[in-house]
Amino acid sequence: MATFEFLLQGLWVAAQPMNLLYALIGVTLGTAVGVLPGIGPALTVALLLPVTYRLDPAGSLIMFAGIYYGGMYGGSTTSILLNTPGESASIVTALEGNKMARAGRGGPALATAAIGSFVAGLIATLGLAFIAPYIVKLALVFGPREYFALMVLAFVTVSSAFGDSTLRGLTSLFVGLALSVVGIDQLTGQTRLSFGVPELLDGIEVTTLAVAMFAIGETLFIAAQGDKGPDKVEAVRGSVWMSKLDWARSWKPWLRGTFIGFPIGAMPAGGAEIGTFLSYATEKRLAKHPEEFGNGAIEGVAGPEAANNASAAGTLVPLLTLGLPTTATAAIMLAGFQQYGLQPGPLLFATNPQLVWGLIASLLIANFMLLVLNLPLIGLWVKLLTIPKPWLYAGILLFATLGTIGANPSVYELGMLLAFGLLGYAMRVFGFPIAPVVVGLILGPLAEQQLRRALAISQGDVSVLFTSPIAAVLLAIAAAALIVPLILRARGRGQVLAQLAANED
Amino acid sequence: MTKGLNPSTTTRRPDRAALFIAAVLAAIAGLIFWDVSRLAGAAGYSQVGPTTVPYAIAFCLAGLSVWTVFEALRNDFPERERQEFGPVFWIVAGLVAQMLLLNVAGFSIATGILFALTARGFGKRKLWFSLPVGIALCFAVWVIFAKLLQLSLPAGPLEHLFF
Predict the structure, then answer these.
(1) Coil, helix or strand at residue A393
(2) CA-CA distance, B150 to B128, in Å (whole number)?
(3) Taking CB atoms and an 8 Å cutoff, what residues of chain A touch B121?
(4) How many interchain CB pairs under 8 A, A with B?
(5) What is the distance between the alpha carbons of residues A229 and A125, in angstroms, rounded to a whole number?
(6) What is the spatial distance between Cα A18 and Cα A58, in angstroms, rounded to a whole number?
(7) For every one of its 505 residues, what pLDDT tens digit does chain A have, with 9 covering 90 and above?
(8) Contacts of A224 in chain B (CB under 8 A)
(9) How close A159 comes to chain B (CA, Å)?
(10) Which positions in chain A touch B100 (Cβ < 8 Å)?
């Protein structure tokens, strides 16, 4: 099978000493930043994107892959020891993991999270390698209207299918779409919404927006909550090694979590959270001692954490094969590709196979590095959690502005950063999700291009969008993803959220 | 949802902040309509041009604005926690100071001020301590990123002193 050959080639690329070094720097930075409270993978990737500006594309993307996986690992450490998960996908890990840490079993909790992440990352990355060629082949029959339908589906799932309000999700999405129109139209060269300001002609930088909303908006929000006393970091007592019983209780949840998380990540279904919730519910139902759930059951850490990492690898399937980001993190990674003029998608597999397969192979290598980095060195990462808040957030803003200045040292760009930071803060206060803005901004122009191509072919006949069977099915799913949650919320008022709240003490 | 438990929500007054959000959304929609209407006539023979998608977005934003008005009248927005604006002010002041000083005073000093004011926002009041620490840290960052990783970070008097 050709996949093996490509993967071996990729491993050869990734095993070059320089690329190994880039991967090592990536996973170290990713873990270090990901472990900081309040910083999720999306922000980790956005903050560290500028670090890679001066590298060649292959090296940069390899470092990037390391940052992505490292951020996922780091997030679970935070949620187990601090109970303030840095990323929404770790909420479930915090439920059981923090209880285990409080009961003095923080070591095994961290170990099962790390090994579970490793197992899931390994299987899911291999899954990515074997599925990608098939999706690439499938994508070749996709025309503009199928792509447009796919993007509509991604818009709906990212903005409104999950979360607590359809209205606020859609509003966030359309704010992002409105921002995406700013600048020069790609097809006709006309300027739109730039109001004669020359800096606006290039449009709005995705990284500036993401850093502003996630880093500055979050910092302002935390600051505005006032001083609520120090967060309690649970010390890691005892051994980090798992007992035989821990192993016996963990290995099945790892595998189940992987097989739940990967398909969910691979579908345009809005991020890793759903996979972790499903895995948690599954483990709770299958457990021999369901009464332990809520008091620190190791299955409740092992399963969701595996699902989390598996769906992180899963989101790379639509990103690499279709150029379709389904999470904020993936949207920022797409921006990372675009800074080198690379557009992920079926064409990239044909024109630049070395790069794509080098990236996939380096994910495997990054996964091994993270296992080594996380188990013995856990004490070092725990120390990072004890940085006092003032220095932590001062440092976050230092690096947030560093990235923007490094990309474009202008007063204007910093002004954008501040303006979007304030917007992000206001959105947090009123409960608007941030991810749809970022996804809307980056995916908006791509969706517009496909829509206009489709309509240009049909000479303006809109019905063409529904007459292709694939597009029709995708649009029907999108409509269902929009309408069903709306009905559910009108009736049950967000059952999932209520269930989650009941599990917390 | 703890609706009805809190006395302030039981009065059923329309949510003013949410009405304001609706107004902002309507204003953005109007802005897009106004700006794009200048481009009218640019559409090709297929009736689809650079104006099609902005019009669609503006139309949807207007719709969302109306929807927001309904939710505001029905008090469907979630409870908001009380915000303390003092810390927010310090951090915004830091960002503004950095923005204005960056090209004059260089990266280290401008960002050092941002660092100290952010720490001030989080309760570190001793600026005489946090300001030098911030500037020293930012200078170290400048050396690493501008010299080793070749990022173009503006240099000022402090940087010129050493390089």
Answers:
(1) helix
(2) 31
(3) 223, 390, 393
(4) 191
(5) 41
(6) 11
(7) 577 788 888 888 778 888 888 888 888 888 888 888 777 778 888 887 777 777 777 788 888 888 888 888 887 787 777 766 555 566 677 778 888 888 778 788 888 888 888 899 899 988 988 888 888 888 888 888 888 998 998 888 888 766 678 888 899 999 999 999 998 887 777 888 878 788 888 888 888 898 898 889 988 988 888 766 556 666 666 566 777 888 878 888 888 888 888 888 887 765 556 778 888 888 888 877 777 777 778 888 888 888 888 888 888 888 888 888 888 888 888 888 887 888 888 888 888 888 888 888 888 888 888 888 887 777 777 777 778 888 888 988 998 898 888 877 788 889 999 999 999 999 988 888 888 898 899 889 989 989 988 888 887 788 888 888 889 998 998 888 888 878 877 776 555 543 433 332 2
(8) 83-85, 87-88
(9) 13
(10) 411
Token digits of residue A227: 């001083």
Strand partners, A191: A184
Domain residue ranges in chain A: 2-503
Contact B53 A190 (CB under 8 A): no
What CA–CA distance (Å, rounded) separates A85 from A75? 7
> Which residues are registered as beta bridge partners of B25?
none
Q: Which of residues 371-400 of A touch B (CB under 8 A)?
A: 389-391, 393-395, 397-398
Per DSSP, what are the bridge partners of residue A192? A183
Using a CB-CB cut-off of 8 Å, the residues of chain A touching B81 are: 225, 429
ipTM for the assembly: 0.88
Cβ-based burial of A349 (10 A; exposed 0-12, middle 13-18, buried ≥19): buried
Distance CA A336, CA A86 (A): 22
* Phi, psi for residue A183 in degrees, rounded to 5: 115, -160
What is the rounded CA–CA span in Å between residue A344 and residue A269? Answer: 19
Cβ contact B39–A190 (<8 Å): yes
Locate the chain A residue with the closest alpha carbon to B64: A171
* Residue A288 CB neighbours (<10 A): 7
- As a whole number of angstroms, the distance between CA A427 and CA A213 comes to 9
